[in-house]
Design goal:
Layout: H1 5-32, H2 43-97, H3 104-125, E1 128-129, E2 132-133, E3 145-148, E4 151-154, E5 157-158, E6 175-176, E7 184-185, E8 188-189, E9 195-196, H4 201-205, E10 209-212, E11 215-218, H5 221-234, H6 237-290, H7 294-318, H8 323-327
Antiparallel strand pairs: 1-2, 3-4, 4-5, 6-9, 7-8, 10-11
Length: 328
């Protein structure tokens, strides 16, 4: 069969272009560290890679949510511990202020000190983490606690005369998606499928009142401190004693709330470890589906480069000389 110069040249150019394309694609793989850059190059792996990427993004978002939640819980716990320390100080001061030898002037000084401590607790109860109130439950527009006409209010509702937490405005739980399979039951979140991030100030500090030996005593720690200060000024030592005993009992409820914060924080740690492990596995799967072995590709790249150089050298023998070659 007769092989013409034109057919030989066409065959050479096809090989030249193929070798150049192989080298260029290999260089691109080494630069991008990806096996392919277009879905059309590997539709099967690309489809699976997109699924892995979506799961990876979701898990990274869950991890971000957990870190934010841990910061919020840590701040809430710190403020609650500060309240606990203040209550210890109140108890220590009052013990010395209800003896029979305490003068009215001394009781007035003590009452002023208790009032100042009460204001500190009120500030802690209205503390913020970023732009969010820590103890406002589902309300984030205004400070949760306020004193209106001498009465303590939570989200605009009187604290001491309300014995049902459901009657407080915006005292609902707020949940965060941390990868537990968030599901809805009607218009509500399934509490088992999400993490409760909110903390209600009235659950922590108390609400309503209790009748003790015929006397109505508030259950809220701030209100009790206010009552103690008032009773010290009037010299009603018997009432101070009753309120102090009630304060001690309600302080235990505060410690239970602090323990609950710690339990929630531990739960977040366990989930963070799980998600971090999932992220590592997903990244490994992503690397397998999209990534390229640099060592293996480097070997291929050298062979493609060698084939390209050999092709160029063959060109001088296959392509016929032109007049310009003779003019050199």
């Amino acid at each position: 069969m007769r092989i013409t110069q034109n057919s030989l040249t066409r065959s050479y150019l096809r090989n030249l272009n193929r070798n150049l394309s192989n080298l260029a694609k290999s260089n691109e793989r080494l630069t991008s560290e990806r096996r392919y850059n277009l879905v059309s190059e590997n539709t099967s792996d690309a489809a699976r890679a997109y699924t892995v990427r979506d799961e990876l993004w979701s898990n990274e978002q869950f991890l971000t949510n957990i870190r934010d939640a841990k910061g919020e819980l840590s701040s809430a716990e710190s403020n609650m511990m500060s309240v606990s320390d203040i209550l210890k100080s109140v108890q220590e001061q009052v013990i010395h202020g209800i003896t029979g030898t305490t003068s009215p002037e001394q009781r007035e000084i003590l009452a002023s000190s208790i009032n100042n401590l009460k204001e500190e607790v009120l500030q802690l109860a209205n503390a913020k983490y970023g732009d969010k109130y820590l103890f406002s439950a589902s309300n984030n527009d205004t400070p949760p606690f306020s004193i209106v006409n001498g009465e303590l209010q939570f989200n605009g509702v009187k604290v001491d005369t309300t014995n049902d937490p459901a009657l407080f405005n915006e005292n609902n739980s707020v949940y965060l998606d941390i990868g537990l399979g968030l599901t809805m039951v009607g218009s509500n979140v399934d509490t088992k499928s999400a993490f409760k991030i909110s903390t209600s100030g009235v659950d922590v500090l108390g609400y309503g009142s209790t009748v003790i030996d015929g006397e109505t005593i508030p259950n809220n720690l701030i209100s009790m401190m206010n009552k103690i200060a008032d009773d010290l000024r009037t010299g009603n030592v018997n009432s101070v004693g009753k309120t102090m005993e009630h304060l001690k009992a309600k302080t235990k409820d505060l410690l239970i709330s602090i323990t609950d914060i710690g339990n929630r924080d531990n739960f977040l740690d366990h989930n963070a470890n799980r998600i971090e492990s999932d992220i590592l596995n997903l990244k490994a799967a992503q690397k397998k589906l999209e990534g390229v072995s640099l060592e293996e590709e480097s070997i291929y790249n050298k062979s493609y480069d060698m084939a390209w150089m050999v092709t160029l050298q063959l060109g001088s023998k296959i392509i016929p000389p032109s007049i310009f070659d003779f003019m050199r």
